[in-house]
Amino acid sequence: MRHACARRLAGFTLIEMLIAIAIFGIMAGFGYRVLDTVLVTRDRVGDEYRRWRDVARVVGALERDLEAIRLRPVRDAADRVAPPLVGIERPARAGEAAIAFTREGDRDEWGNLSAPRRTGYRLSNATLERLTWQGLDAAPRSEPSAVAMLSGVKALQVRYRNAAGQWLPAWPGQTAPPPAAEPRAPGDAPVAVAAGALPAAVEVTIELATGERILRLIPLSGGGRS
Question: How close are the terminal C-alpha atoms of the chain, in Å?
């Protein structure tokens, strides 16, 4: 009789089991919510890291391009002389570059410098694109190749500082019309460039769709001369 009572006292009743299961379920629910929150936070942090890594990569490429600008004019698709750097405040045509300039070539693994090329940037369908033309002088109806650099861009604004310290929304001057077409013969030397054809500095502002604004001030070598 004593042994039977001892066995009953040493076990769990049905109510105790149900209470234990309920407590375990509550703890498991809290644990799942904590784990889910940690995983969601980790994913968000990873997305933010990748987004700002892409922003830093794009800004670095833009700075390197502008720092490699060269004082070399070109001829556009209409055979008009265009300055080394052309900045348009509000591009009128779809796909038109907001900024285009002559950039020196890159060095290969042996230290050889490739030929200079025309490079530009534009905003198309909320995507910042880098443009590259096949040659310095554009052929009729030629289009540059475009590489998507950064998506989710709301606005791209570029300003230009002249030798007098004034900030201009376009370059050269206030969206001055390009010079008239000039005749040229095959093999003609490049057209001479007037002094001060480059701004002293370029300010680039990239506004993301999420509201952040990235601003960079890039001094230009050879710019601001009078």
Answer: 114
